[in-house]
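Ticket #4471: structure export looks truncated?
Reporter: QA, pipeline team
Priority: medium

Steps to reproduce: submit the single chain below to the structure queue and open the exported record.
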Amino acid sequence: MKFQKQSLEPAAFQMAPMIDIVFLLLTFFIITWQWSRSETELDVSVPTTAEGAEPERVQGEKIINVLADGTVIVDKTPLNQQELFVIMQKLSELYKNQPIRLRADAKTEYQHVINVISTCTKAGIWNISFATQRPQPAE
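Actual output as written to the record:
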């Protein structure tokens, strides 16, 4: 009995699924980058210091912006101290070590910053860091 050997076609490399995955990854990173920049694009000129670092966001970090006139903004929403307390209290109940980044304008009165810190500590938030920036090089 003679068997005929059937030659198999070489496996083809499918490009369509790979292109889909690349576009999904690209979309994911663009959206994530845009989201991470959304809270730092407000018109807040944080204080400068020679030891200022580039902002490295911690996962789950909430940003509180304090404008020069004392307005507190979280997630692009202006809040009073009571509304800020409610939000911070919910966060502290959900996440034990909730990180907070405080971005106060360089011209903000110190009392406004203290009010925000006090509200956060009353709500159970203790992990607070302050945003600074490096001075612009002189031309």
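Status: closed, not a bug. The export was complete when the record was re-opened. Leaving a note from the reviewer for reference: Residues 62-130 form a domain with the Nucleotidyltransferase; domain 5 fold (CATH 3.30.420.270).
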